């Protein structure tokens, strides 16, 4: 990428997002000003504490977890730049909508398990990776077909076959890694599905 395009006027979105995640980590893990117990996603608590849908994406299990998701922000920023993003607020809009869609998809999945199989999931989920996978899903389709508008805002994303090949590889590897212990497979898959859905609207 040419050096004059290495810094964009749209970069404040990614920088701000990273600063928020780092700041929350400092307050929850280093100085322990906030207790993560009140912020993570827990199916049994969402009905009475719906704020967890959004706070859960801001907290991380440990430093490695945070760094991997910060790396995801860098990667999605790179792909958006290569696809010629033209929006100062796309990233924020996507994060908020994707976080809610992730919850909705998981909620439907859990309802099916409870109604038809009498299984009641009991787990805790946290981290920004669901949104990252949502962006990967969105960008994968975009790299094939392009995307001119997102919720009425012009974003002017162009198709790019080289990026499409790279994203396919990353998504495949990411799916395999999602089966590792301690990784939220349902969160990653629901994020990916959310990204596909957001591409279609």
Structure in words:
The chain is mainly α and 201 residues long. It is built from eight helices and two strands. The chain has a two-stranded antiparallel ribbon with strand order 1-2. β1 and β2 form a beta hairpin. α4 (63-82) packs parallel to α6, α5 (90-117) crosses α6 and α6 runs parallel beside α8 (185-200). The protein is globular and about 45 Å long. The model has no long low-confidence stretch (mean pLDDT 89).
Number of helices: 8
Structural class: mainly alpha
What is the class in the CATH system?
Mainly Alpha
What ranges have pLDDT less than 50 throughout 5 or more consecutive residues? Answer: none
The portion of residues assigned to helices is 55-70%
The N- to C-terminal Cα distance equals 30 Å
CATH homology-level superfamily? Rhomboid-like
Number of strand segments: 2
Adjacency order of strands in the biggest sheet: 1-2
Indicate the CATH topology: Rhomboid-like fold
Task: Tell me the β content.
Answer: under 5%
Q: Based on Cα principal axes, name the global outline.
A: globular
Largest sheet: 2 strands, antiparallel
């Amino acid at each position: 990428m040419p050096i004059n395009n290495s810094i964009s006027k749209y970069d404040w979105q990614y920088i701000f997002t990273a600063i928020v995640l780092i700041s929350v980590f400092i307050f929850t893990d280093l100085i322990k000003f906030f207790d993560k117990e009140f912020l993570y996603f827990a199916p049994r608590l969402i009905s009475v504490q719906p704020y967890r849908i959004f706070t859960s994406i801001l907290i991380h299990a440990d430093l490695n977890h945070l760094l991997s998701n910060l790396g995801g922000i860098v990667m999605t920023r790179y792909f958006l730049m290569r696809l010629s993003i033209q929006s100062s607020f796309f990233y924020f809009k996507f994060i908020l909508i994707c976080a809610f869609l992730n919850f909705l998809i998981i909620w439907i999945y859990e309802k099916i398990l409870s109604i038809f199989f009498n299984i009641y999931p009991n787990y805790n989920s946290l981290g920004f990776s669901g949104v990252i996978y949502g962006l990967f899903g969105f960008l994968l389709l975009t790299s094939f077909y392009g995307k001119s508008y997102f919720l009425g805002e012009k974003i002017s994303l162009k198709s790019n076959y080289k990026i499409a090949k790279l994203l396919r590889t990353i998504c495949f590897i990411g799916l395999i890694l999602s089966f590792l212990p301690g990784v939220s497979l349902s969160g990653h898959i629901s994020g990916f599905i959310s990204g596909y859905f957001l591409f279609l609207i």
